[in-house]
Write a structure and sequence with these properties.
Blueprint lengths: L2 H22 L12 E9 L5 H13 L6 E8 L15 E7 L2 H9 L1 H10 L3 E10 L2
Antiparallel strand pairs: 1-3, 1-4, 2-3
Helix pairs in contact: 2-4
């Protein structure tokens, strides 16, 4: 393949990938509600330091993406950043979920997938703290 044809091919492939990603993305904000609700949950494991329990809980968090009112979901662990007085690194796993509005978050709370998550994974955590915020 000549350099010119390769450039054209790569440019076309990149454009197709970008278009597909854009077309499949669900917007966080809509014209009706430009300010989504952010649901951030922190979990402390019963067995702190257990990689197996941490990975199992992360597996469970990822099952929540099947709930139709969730726009975006992220699972996380404590970042290896600078230790400062204002940083709480005592937790083990977090989930950050974006909803269009409080109604979507309310549906999530009683959704069968969320109830199954609590039933199947709550034995792993000793403590849970939730922060719900509306985007301003």
């Amino acid at each position: 393949m000549s350099k010119s044809n390769r450039r054209k091919f790569l440019g076309t492939a990149a454009a197709l990938c970008a278009g597909a990603a854009t077309a499949s993305a669900r917007p966080l904000a809509t014209a009706d509600n430009p300010k989504p609700l952010i649901h951030h949950v922190f979990f402390w494991l019963k067995n702190p330091g257990s990689k197996q329990d941490r990975d199992k809980l992360i597996e469970g968090v990822k099952t929540l993406k099947g709930i139709e009112t969730i726009r975006k979901i992220y699972a996380g662990t404590v970042a290896d950043t600078e230790k400062r007085d204002v940083v709480d690194a005592s937790w083990d796993v977090s989930e950050m979920i974006f909803f269009d509005d409080p109604k979507g978050q309310a549906i999530y709370q009683t959704h069968p997938i969320h109830l199954e998550f609590v039933k199947n994974y709550s034995h792993l955590w000793a403590k849970v703290v939730v922060y719900d915020a509306m985007t301003v």
